[in-house]
Every structure is written in C-alpha cells, then in structure tokens.
C-alpha cells in the first residue's frame, strides 16, 4: 500500500529528473529552469531543499549521484550540449547552520555537439567513471583518474550508436563473471530503424566497448531504460519505456574459454504492458529489482511486481498529482482499454490489476 | 452549406467555467464538477470529474464562418460572428442587462463586396477594434478593421443624422459599412492576430505571404513570402514567437528575424486544422489534423545563446488522445494548467481533458518512490499497515535484518521465527541448519563437518537390511518391506522424524506434531511407521480437539477398515476417492495403503507434502536401487524450482549453491542465501564466486539502508566462519619523531572506526603510561583543547561516587572511555580527545587550533549520517 504526499519543489519550470543518493537520504532534482536542487531528509522524514543553483544555460535533463565513497558528487546534463560534475564543499559562510550546502562545478564536459540527453555514473567497482549520451547518437565514457581531483576527466571511450540517444543505463552487476555493460536507448521515432535499444559490453582484450546485442523488437522511440539491480542473480533484467512498458531478461550464455568476442546474451521478453495506453516516459527499479515503477503520458504512475513464477502484474496505480484514482479509470483513454478488468477503488493505492496485463505477461513468457 | 461547418470552441475570457461551442449555432456551456450542486439532470459528462450544462443557445446568426469573443470584461457575453457573406455581426448569449451590450448586440459590419469572412480578431488593448480577414476581391481590401463604437455608417451620415434625431430606427443605426482601416488590397486574408508586443501591429496570413500591418502607417507593411499563412497565432509567453501552418506543416517564426521560419515541425500526412499555444505553459504548442483522434504537442525548449554558433530550438514531441472519436476542435483553458476541452467532429461530443506533464520517478534504497510531475514533487512510501499485497522482499529483508534474522547462531532453527515465521521455505532451510547442527554433534565434532546433504549420505549407503514388520494393531504380516542402514537412520534424523541419540522411536516427533495441531501429518507419519492404531488415535484426537475437524473421524473410520486384500472393495474405493481429499497428508496415507510394494509414486511425488517427509518416507521404503534415483530426481526438481526445502537434499555443497542460485534468481533474497551459505565449507562453497557475490550484495544492501551495525555484526559472524574475510588493521599512527607506529601495545586488537580514526588509550587498564611514543619515548602530541598529551585520560564526566571500584563496562562507562580516544581531523591534522572535540564542535564550526579555519566536522557528509539500526 503506497501513499503519496506532495512536496513544494519551488522549481520555476518543469522538473525533468529526480535522483536519490545511495542511502536515500538525499535527493537531487533538475528542471527546465536550468537549475539543480539538492534535498536532505531530516530525521522526521521531511525533505528540505539545502541547495539550489543554476547549472546550465538550457533545460537540465538529468541529474545523478556518484557513490558516496567518491564524496558528495553530482553530475547533470543539459540541452546546452554539456554535462557537468558538481561537488559539495564546506561553505565559507555558516551555510550548514542555516541548513544550506554549497556546491561547486568541478568540470564541464563539452565534447557533445548536441543536447546531452542522459548522464550516469558507472557502477562504483569500475572506479569513478561517468557516461553521457547525446542526441547525435554518441555515448561518451569519461574517467576521473584521480578521485581526489574531480576537475580532471579524460574521455576514455566514444561510441557511435548511429541513432539519436535518449537514455543510458549501466548494468550494476559487480560480479566478476560479468564484464562492464551498458544499454542505450534511442528516441528516434522512425519505426523503420528497428532496434532502438543497443547493449554494449567491454572487451578486455581490445579494451573497447563492442555491441553485444540489439533488441530488434523494440521499434518505437525509447524514452527510458533501466537495468535492474542484479543482487547476485545469474541474469540481467532490463526495463524499457517505449510505447509500452517492457521487461527483458538477458541471460549470459556460458562462454567458451577460447572465445574473445562479446558475451552471447539470450534475450527473453518477460513482460509487456500497454496499460498506460500511451507513451511510457520513465521506468525505475527498487533496490532488489522486485518492484518496477513506470510513468506514462496518461499521467499515472504504475507499480509492477513479479510473483515467484516471474509473472509480472500491476499492483498499484497512482495519479501523477498524487490524487486518488476515482471511478473506473483516470481518463477516457485508459477507460477504453482496460474495460471491466480493472478493479479500482477510490484509494490512492490499489491492488487492482488488469487481467489483460496478466495475459500479456504469461503469453510473453512462453 | 453552413450546417456542415466545422465546430470550434471558445473559452470565455472571464469566466473560467464557461465556453461556447460554435457549429451551426452558438451554444454556451458551464462546466462543473460531476455531482456538484450546480449540475442538473441534463448535464453532459465531460470527464470522470466534470460535466457541462447548456446555459444558452443562439441560432440568430446563420452562415457562421468564424467567431471571436469580446476580450473585455463588460459586456461579458459579447461575440463577433463572421459570416459567409463577409458580414460581421455582434451577438450575445444569454440575457445581459448591460446597456453597453444592448447597444452593441445586433450591430452589423458590412464590407463593400460580399465574400467569405475567414477570420476575426479583437484588439487586445483597444477593444473597440475588430479585425476581419476576408477572401479576395479584386476591387476591395481583404483586411478590414472595424470600430464597434461607430454609431453609423459615414455614407449614410446625413440620413442617419436624421435618424439619430428621431432616435428610433434601430435597424439602420446598427449597420456599419465604413471600416476604420482597410488593408491588403486585391489579396486574400486567411488568418489574423494582433501582436502582443505592440497592439498597433496586426499580423495577417495573406494569400502568399505573412504580413505585418502597422496601424500608425497603413501604407507600409512588413511581409515574408510563405505558404504557411493559415492559423497565425502569437505565443502568449514569448511575444515574438508566432506559429502558422500550411497543409500538414507548422512553421514557427521569430518576428525579430522574420525572413524565414526559425523552425518547421515534422510534416503531418493530413492537413492541419488548428494550432494553438498553451496559455499556461511556456512554449507548448498543440496541433490537430483532419480526421484524427490525437492532438500533437510540441514542447519548445528555450534556445541557449551559443557564442557565434547556430542552434535550433529543441522540440519534445508528444501526442495525446483525449477521446476515442475524431476531434473537430479543441481549446486550451485560459488558466487551468494544461487543460483543454475537445469537441468531436460529429455530434458535438465534448471531453474535458488535461495534458499530463511527463513524470520522472525514482525509488530510494528504502523503497519509497519519489516522482516529479510538472513543477511538483510527490513522495510516496509504503504504508506501514499490513496490506493485502505481500510485502516486497526488500521490505522483508529490512525487517528481518532489524529482527536479527540469521544472527541466532546458537539456536539456528530459531532464525525462521526471526524472519517472521510465515515462510515455510525459510523454516525448512533452518530446520536443515538445525539438523546440520545435530549432525555435527552426532559425529562428535571429529572434524569440521559441513553438511553435505541427504543426497550424498544415501549415496554411500551400505549394509542395508530389509525387514518386514507387523502392523501395530493388526495381526496380519505386512507385505511392506522396510529398509534400514546407518545412513538411512541419519537421513531420518535430518528429516526430523527421529531425534538424536540411539532412540529411533518416532513418538517424540508425533507428539510435537500433535502439539502443533498438525493432525494429518502426524497421522501420516504414524501410518508410515506402520502404526495404524496410533494414526487412528491421532485422527480422533484431531477431531475432538478444540476447533477440530470432525471429518478426521471419518478418515479414521476409513483407515480402520484397512485390508491388504488386493481385490477388496475397500481398496477400490480408497484408491479412487483419495484424490478427492484436500489434505495432502490424508491423500498420501491412502496412497500408501493402496499401492503395490515398492511403487509409492502417489506418496513420493505428492508435491504438497513437505520434502523432508517424502525423503524420510523414501529412506524407509525405497530399495538401495530406487532411493538414490528418487533423491536425484527430487534434488534436480528442487534445484530447478529454487525450493529451499531442497537444501535438505543438497546440503551446503555445490549442488546447494546451484539450488540457492535458482532461489536468488527468483526472489532476490540474498540475505537468506548469505546466512545459509556462510555455514558452507570455506574451501568450496564460500569461495564460490556466486556466494561471494550474494554476500557482497547483502552487505551493500545493509550499507545502503544504513544498517551499519547489522553489517558489522554480519562481518563478525562471517569472520568467525570464514577467517579469510577478516580485513587487516586499517589505521596506524606513527610517531612524529621516530616514524614508528605508536600502536604496538594495541596492535593485536586495533580499534576500527569508520569515517574518522582514533587511538584507544584507556581500553586496557594494564597499560600504565601511553603518553609517550613506545619507540623513542618522546611525548605524543597534545589535545588542542585541554593541552594534555595524547594518552592522558581525561575526566569530563562528573565522577560518580568512589569510582575506582571495578571496571564496569556499562554503556555510560564505554562512552566515557570513548571521550578519551584521541581523534584528529584528516584535513588540518589537528586533534584532541574525542569528548573535547565533540563538545567544541557543538558550538563551533572551525577547528579549535588558533588560525586554523578548517571546518573539520563538516567535511564528511556520510560521517554525519546516523545509522538507522542503532538502538
């Protein structure tokens, strides 16, 4: 049962991204108002904005935290064609007393010629590495060779994906059995270019990233992509936000010792849900990758959960403004597709599920 | 044919709940919440929450081509209607008692030559000015600007003066034929809008160009040749930004550089019918094409100002589907965020629709969900109340960690109770650990025996003897052969059927089952031990017990009729009816009684019966040839399913890791996997990369939850079982003079801290003096506050009584000792006694050393976080 409450964000324009730190005690938001805000959770559970500053000269698309062992470090990316790295420092004034913190720009990454659409830190076991992707279809991987000096970043890899990139996600697996891997999604709306999700893997011999897989069945624009926390599982799970919610399972095939190419992945679609009945905008996994949240143009947030048999079901729907979902559905478009199957009550949190999605899931898993 | 004219919608400029639909007539509607007191029976539902009530209809003005709502507050319901003959008529909806309105309503503005009026636009500032755009006439102008306050037509001035004197003839006084301005000669005007940046400027979509007319100098116009001349509209937020369209293509113009469009949007296959800027959102343009049920939205992001470099503004394109039917027209609500009313192309079906902002979201490590919708944030967390949905494993693991799940290393079997005690799989996995515990004791701890599973035990089975025992309570010699061996006996112990020691009686087990009210299971176990009388007794007891099931008596009755006659009616009935028994144990009882010797599939493959009961059964009744085959099969089944009950079979071997892998793959429960596998052999199992990976992931989870104490306890527990996991000493302090480590005396047990370092000085009471370097005997640095040498015990806690009695390690005492620890700042390298430093920083931000401005206490953000599992 989930209950929503509103927080006064005080951004002057649309918020494009929210991001939690490792411990879930801090949060960063970024907006079209070109600013980033940092929020701290007090002991009583309230969120307080402790820093807000102009970061870019365009909309800020994404903001993300580095692992705390690298310090209090944020990265942001923007329509202004740059990505930036920010570090919290001890203020010169008594900021801390006033509940404020001070962030300074450590570097601006200016390699992209177009809007930088996503920025992500690599898993911490790889060191302090930062990845960006941009509208011109280039993924860039930067490394800070000296973790004490965040103003020095060297461009380690530049990978051309051919299609305009909208989102990127690192495989978080820290298992030595898995090579570093990331997935990149494209929002190119031309359905004739199939395979809007590409998966790249690091090859130790060539010391380069090579394409391991293209998900050819994803033909529509992809808005978001998220590898599930691996948690020691033997396979990887990838959630994709496109015209529907999709969950893929990537099972690494046992590698013959002699082969040097990328790991062969067996791609299985585990679930496919069109309950949003519109473009799906974001997907996010919980820490154990047992709950998936998605948001769509229907203005709703949906929660998905798998049972023991790997059948995914919708376990909750909330409206984007946190208000209860009344009647048989939130809006006419949704009404037409989940006819009769949704058993929704006037609570914010619901256990309603559509039999349609169940069918989709079981069908897909066969 | 006017009746077929396409519908349009206009929101009232002043009443946020009113709008007009114009098709063949004008209909004024009021929108309100469904079920509100204002909604009447005839209200039309527009959405889940809202409905519309028809307030007024006006069908006085036929041949409508375009409508524009008077922008000033008074008169409030005045509309200008452009007709097919080019006339513009002022009309009103509903009753108005406003005298100004009465004067204006019915007024007509007539062009010299009749042709279609395409568009109307009220001047936003000088509301007397109404611009009308007309089709082409070679001898006339196509843009006429009327002054609605004109009293009469100048041509008829003489006549009208007379009329005015008489002041009765309303008809002729309402006709105005002389426009204030005439623009665009010998041209056509398709669309018009007044520019917001200067209300003297009128932008017109002419036949082949966009033109800007300046009322101060009508002889001149600025124009640009383009086909995109339809639907010109100014962005209410960016007054220099204009949109216009042609066929399926929208052009965006910047009036400051009017030579060419700054942007053209992706061409639509069907011709556009309406393009409108969102009044509540900066840079949001909505477009509609013919025969379509979707509205396309273009979110224009601010163009950065690059130095010398050209860039295009970026567009986020979306489409929304407000209704199922094809859309005739739509109109943004003037003030409600992102809201519009949509009217269908046919039958005037209306929909109230809000375009939702795209929501971005994120889960926190503690399973609360934050999302951003528009400019707002929503924090959503799992309600503490026991919901109908099963709790997520992340929540479960957190709760289990808090209840010290896995930490009861003495009574391992109690761990499933710590886990909540509801999960039968966890219970059995800890039963196994309990059994393992027992096995260790059995074998007298000869060596570190690691539980290797019944699979391996029965493999080595030798010296099996066969016995045929009588049924207790029956005189007949039983046909049932039972097998015995030392290994089988051990397996039965592991299954929990017989207890440790030489006693092989199941009676103790039966009693415990009775105590747990597991009547059917107890009866089945009794029966498998060939004690039919005991089985019946148990069932009777179950039937008569408080809230007992009386049907158990019926079962007992059936049982008492047991006969081993192969062709008896009893057998026939039992083997067919047993499948209808809902309880699996009752079912397998009759399966056992009715089956042929050695063919016990009805028992062995009844998956609802606990694995340990089936395995115990197999160990009693399967031959040396059958048993390993069955155990192998069952093992593989358990491995495949990731069923923890199977750990009984696999033990903590590689097989067990395989099984656990499958369990983790399904559940993500690395907590159980970590605790379970810690007991495995350090060589094979603990070194398995999968096990290492689960342990690392579990520790990482504990860290993310700030369960640092739990993580530390886990590490201690792990260190006991896997000594190689112990980390080396982390911090050494070396003497300023000789450079040697000063911590010789406590090197055996260095204090380990997190986030800051300290040197224990008063931990060992045997140390007499540690204020000097043990190497060179030079004094150690001084505390920045008390100026005592490091190592000098300080007392800043008031001495309680005659303190020198005994070293009482109470919590308070430990804290007092911690105050003596020497701490320092890594940044400025000043330090002192922990207690002194803490009390200093309670009131200060900077280091206590003079001229040092280091903000020591604020340097480490993680260090300021408190663990969430401390008591």
Automatic annotation (TrEMBL), chain A:
A Pfam family annotated for this UniProt entry: WD40
Protein's UniProt name: SEH1-like (S. cerevisiae)
Source taxonomy: Eukaryota, Metazoa, Chordata, Craniata, Vertebrata
One GO CC annotation: kinetochore
Keywords annotated in UniProt: Cell cycle, Cell division, Centromere, Chromosome partition, Kinetochore, Lysosome, Mitosis, mRNA transport, Nuclear pore complex, Nucleus, Protein transport, Repeat, Translocation, Transport, WD repeat
Gene Ontology process terms (BP): cell division; cellular response to amino acid starvation; chromosome segregation; positive regulation of TORC1 signaling; protein transport
Organism: Cyclopterus lumpus
Primary site of residence: nucleus
Family annotation (PROSITE patterns): WD_REPEATS_2, WD_REPEATS_REGION
InterPro entries recorded: Sec13/Seh1_fam, WD40/YVTN_repeat-like_dom_sf, WD40_PAC1, WD40_repeat_dom_sf, WD40_rpt
TrEMBL record, chain B:
Residue ranges occupied by any MIOS-like alpha-solenoid domain in the UniProt entry: 397-621
CDD domains named in the record: mRING-H2-C3H3C2_Mio (cd16691)
Major location category of this protein: membrane
InterPro entries: MIOS/Sea4, MIOS_a-sol, WD40/YVTN_repeat-like_dom_sf, WD40_repeat_dom_sf, WD40_rpt, Zn_ribbon_mio
UniProt GO molecular function: zinc ion binding
Annotated GO biological process: cellular response to amino acid starvation; heart contraction; positive regulation of TORC1 signaling; venous blood vessel development
Domain GATOR2 complex protein MIO zinc-ribbon like: 735-857
Keywords annotated in UniProt: Lysosome, Membrane, Metal-binding, Repeat, WD repeat, Zinc, Zinc-finger
Gene Ontology terms: cellular component: lysosomal membrane
Subcellular location: Lysosome membrane
Matching SMART domains: WD40 (SM00320)
Family statement drawn from the similarity comment of this UniProt entry: Belongs to the WD repeat mio family.
PANTHER family (alphabetical): GATOR COMPLEX PROTEIN MIOS, WD40 DOMAIN-CONTAINING PROTEIN MIO FAMILY MEMBER
Name of protein: Missing oocyte, meiosis regulator, homolog (Drosophila)
Organism lineage: Eukaryota, Metazoa, Chordata, Craniata, Vertebrata
């Amino acid at each position: 049962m989930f209950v929503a409450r509103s927080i006064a964000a005080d951004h002057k324009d649309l918020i494009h991204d929210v991001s939690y730190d490792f411990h879930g005690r801090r949060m960063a938001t970024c907006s079209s108002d070109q600013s980033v805000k940092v929020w701290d959770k007090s002991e009583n559970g309230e969120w307080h904005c402790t820093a807000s500053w102009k970061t870019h000269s365009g909309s800020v698309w994404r903001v993300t935290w580095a692992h705390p062992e690298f310090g209090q470090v944020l990265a942001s990316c923007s329509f202004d064609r740059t990505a930036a790295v920010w570090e919290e420092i001890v203020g010169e004034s008594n900021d801390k007393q006033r509940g404020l913190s001070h962030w300074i720009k450590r570097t601006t990454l200016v390699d992209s010629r177009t809007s930088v659409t996503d920025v992500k830190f690599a898993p911490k076991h790889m060191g302090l590495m930062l990845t960006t992707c941009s509208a011109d279809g280039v993924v860039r991987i930067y490394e800070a060779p000296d973790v004490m000096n965040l103003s020095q970043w060297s461009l380690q890899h530049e990978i051309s994906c051919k299609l305009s990139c909208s989102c990127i996600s690192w495989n978080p697996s820290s298992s030595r059995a898995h090579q570093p891997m990331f997935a990149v999604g494209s929002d190119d709306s031309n359905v004739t270019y199939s395979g809007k999700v590409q998966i790249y893997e690091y090859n130790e011999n060539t010391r380069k990233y090579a394409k391991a897989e293209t998900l050819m069945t994803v033909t529509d624009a992809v808005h978001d992509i998220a590898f599930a926390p691996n948690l020691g599982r033997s396979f990887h799970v990838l959630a994709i936000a496109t015209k529907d919610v999709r969950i893929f399972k990537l099972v690494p095939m046992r590698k013959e010792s002699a082969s040097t190419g990328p790991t062969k992945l067996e791609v299985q679609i585990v679930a496919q849900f069109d309950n949003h009945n519109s473009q799906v905008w974001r997907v996010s996994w919980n820490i154990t990758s047992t709950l998936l949240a998605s948001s769509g143009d229907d203005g709703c947030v949906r929660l998905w959960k798998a049972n023991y048999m790997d059948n995914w079901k919708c376990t909750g729907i909330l409206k984007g403004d946190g208000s209860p979902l009344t009647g048989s559905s939130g809006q006419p478009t949704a009404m037409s597709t989940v006819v009769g199957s949704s058993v929704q009550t006037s609570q914010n949190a619901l256990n309603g599920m559509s039999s349609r999605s169940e069918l989709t899931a079981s069908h897909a898993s066969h | 044919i006017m009746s077929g004219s396409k519908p349009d919608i206009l929101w009232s400029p002043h009443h946020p709940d009113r709008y007009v639909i114009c098709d063949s007539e004008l209909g004024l509607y009021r929108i309100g919440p469904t079920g509100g007191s204002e909604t009447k029976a005839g209200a039309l539902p527009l959405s889940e929450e809202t409905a519309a009530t028809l307030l007024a209809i006006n069908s006085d003005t036929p041949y409508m081509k375009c409508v524009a709502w008077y922008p000033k507050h008074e008169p409030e319901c005045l509309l200008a209607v452009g007709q097919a003959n080019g006339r513009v008529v002022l009309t009103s909806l509903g009753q108005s008692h406003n005298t100004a309105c009465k004067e204006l309503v019915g007024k007509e503005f007539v062009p010299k030559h009749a042709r279609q009026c395409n568009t109307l636009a009220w001047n936003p500032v000088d509301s007397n000015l109404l611009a009308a755009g007309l089709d082409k006439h070679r001898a006339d102008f196509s843009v006429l600007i009327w002054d609605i306050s004109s009293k009469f037509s100048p041509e008829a001035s003489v006549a009208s003066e007379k009329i005015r004197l008489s002041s009765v003839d309303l008809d002729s006084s309402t006709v105005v034929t002389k426009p204030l301005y005439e623009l665009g000669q010998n041209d056509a005007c398709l669309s018009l809008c007044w520019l917001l940046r200067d209300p003297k400027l009128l932008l017109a979509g002419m036949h082949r160009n966009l033109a800007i007319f300046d009322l101060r100098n009508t002889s001149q116009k600025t124009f640009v040749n383009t086909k995109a001349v339809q639907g010109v509209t100014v962005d209410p937020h960016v007054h220099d930004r204009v949109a216009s369209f042609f066929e399926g293509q929208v052009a965006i113009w910047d009036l400051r550089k009017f030579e060419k469009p700054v942007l053209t949007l992706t061409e639509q296959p069907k011709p556009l019918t309406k393009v409108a800027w969102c009044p509540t959102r900066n840079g949001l343009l909505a477009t509609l094409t013919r025969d379509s049920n979707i509205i396309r939205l273009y979110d224009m992001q601010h163009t950065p100002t690059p130095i010398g470099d050209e860039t295009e503004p970026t567009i986020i394109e979306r489409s929304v589907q407000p209704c199922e039917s094809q859309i005739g027209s739509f109109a943004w609500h003037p003030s409600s965020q992102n809201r519009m009313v949509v009217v269908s192309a046919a039958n005037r079906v209306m929909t109230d629709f809000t375009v939702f902002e795209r929501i971005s979201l994120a889960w926190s490590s503690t399973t609360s969900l934050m999302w951003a919708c528009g400019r707002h944030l929503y924090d959503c967390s799992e309600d503490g109340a026991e919901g109908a949905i099963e709790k997520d494993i992340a929540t479960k693991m957190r709760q289990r960690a808090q209840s010290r799940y896995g930490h009861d290393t003495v009574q391992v079997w109690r761990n499933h109770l710590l886990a909540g005690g509801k999960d039968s799989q966890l219970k059995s996995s800890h039963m196994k650990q309990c059994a393992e515990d027992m096995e260790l004791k059995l074998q007298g701890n000869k060596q570190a025996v690691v539980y290797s599973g019944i699979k391996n035990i029965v493999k080595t089975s030798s010296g099996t003897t066969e016995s045929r025992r009588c049924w207790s309570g029956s005189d007949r010699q039983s046909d049932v052969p039972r097998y015995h061996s030392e290994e089988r006996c051990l397996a039965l112990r592991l299954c929990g059927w017989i207890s440790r020691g030489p006693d092989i009686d199941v009676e103790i087990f039966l009693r415990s089952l009775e105590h747990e009210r597991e009547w059917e299971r107890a009866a089945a176990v009794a029966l498998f031990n060939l004690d039919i009388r005991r089985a019946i007794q148990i069932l009777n007891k179950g039937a008569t017990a408080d809230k007992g099931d009386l049907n158990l008596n019926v079962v007992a009755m059936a049982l008492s009729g047991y006969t081993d006659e192969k062709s008896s009616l009893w057998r026939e009935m039992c083997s067919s009816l047993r499948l209808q028994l809902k309880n699996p144990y009752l079912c397998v009882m009759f399966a056992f009684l009715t089956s042929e010797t050695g063919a016990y599939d009805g028992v062995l493959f009844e998956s609802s019966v606990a694995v340990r009961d089936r395995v115990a059964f197999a160990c009693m009744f399967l031959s040396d040839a059958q048993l390993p085959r069955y155990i192998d099969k069952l093992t593989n089944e358990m491995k495949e399913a990731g069923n923890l009950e199977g750990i009984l079979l696999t033990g903590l071997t590689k097989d067990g890791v395989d099984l656990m892998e499958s369990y983790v793959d399904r559940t993500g429960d690395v907590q159980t996997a970590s605790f379970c596998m810690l007991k495995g052999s350090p060589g094979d199992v603990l070194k398995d990369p999968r096990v290492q990976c689960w342990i690392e992931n579990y520790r990482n989870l504990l860290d993310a939850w700030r369960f640092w104490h739990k993580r530390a306890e886990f590490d201690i527990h792990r260190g006991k079982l896997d000594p190689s996991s112990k980390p080396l000493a982390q911090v050494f302090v070396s003497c300023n003079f000789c450079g040697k480590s000063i911590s010789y005396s406590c090197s055996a047990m260095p204090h380990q801290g997190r986030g800051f370092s300290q040197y224990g000085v008063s931990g060992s009471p045997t140390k007499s003096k540690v204020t000097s370097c043990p190497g060179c005997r030079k004094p150690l640095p001084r505390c920045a506050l008390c100026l005592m040498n490091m190592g000098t015990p300080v007392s800043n806690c008031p001495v309680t009584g005659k303190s020198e009695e005994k070293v009482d390690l109470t919590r308070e005492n430990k804290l007092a000792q911690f105050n003596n620890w020497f701490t320092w700042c890594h940044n400025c390298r000043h330090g002192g006694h922990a207690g002194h430093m803490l009390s200093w920083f309670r009131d200060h931000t900077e280091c206590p050393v003079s001229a040092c401005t280091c903000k020591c206490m604020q340097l480490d953000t993680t260090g300021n976080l408190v663990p969430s599992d401390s008591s």
